[in-house]
Amino acid sequence: MIDKNCAYCMKDENPSLYEKFGYFCVELPTSNVYIFKEQSHPGRAIVAYKEHVSEIVDLNDQERNAFFADVNLVARAIHKVWNPDKLNYGMYGDTGKHLHVHLCPKYKDEYEWGGVFLMNPQLHTVFESECASLAAKLKEAILSLQK
């Protein structure tokens, strides 16, 4: 199923939907990876399941395991590139009902250490050129870890 109002479903047909908050990085077996444009937490990314499902329970065991293998790969790449003290994982979707995971690196000297990360604090939104650089670093790390 495709939802024509869904940024993740319309990645190719209407990229302006996801470009409001993200920058496409790389396609993986079951997901697409985006750099989150609000980079208050350097290296923050989103892993979005390719198919339009709302809940993790909508996946069978094989699909779920494959999706979490993608999430794990991106998490390992974030650790490799940005070396966070902790990586938080957020699965929301209250308004955008498409299965996705926010990977939010946390750093001990950062303003939200020890608490929940804000969804979109608007403290450090980066421009396309910086998004491209962040995406290239993350993609390179992902590809190196796949070998």
Annotate the secondary structure layout.
Elements: E1 22-27, E2 31-36, E3 45-49, H1 61-82, E4 86-90, E5 100-106, H2 128-146
Antiparallel strand pairs: 1-2, 2-3, 3-5, 4-5
Short synopsis of the structure:
The chain is of the alpha+beta class and 147 residues long.
Write up this protein.
This protein has 147 residues and is of the alpha+beta class. It has helices spanning 61-82, 128-146, and strands at 22-27, 31-36, 45-49, 86-90, 100-106. Strands 1-2-3-5-4 form a five-stranded antiparallel sheet. A hairpin with an 8-residue loop joins strand 2 (31-36) and strand 3. The N and C termini lie far apart (32 Å). The mean pLDDT is 90.
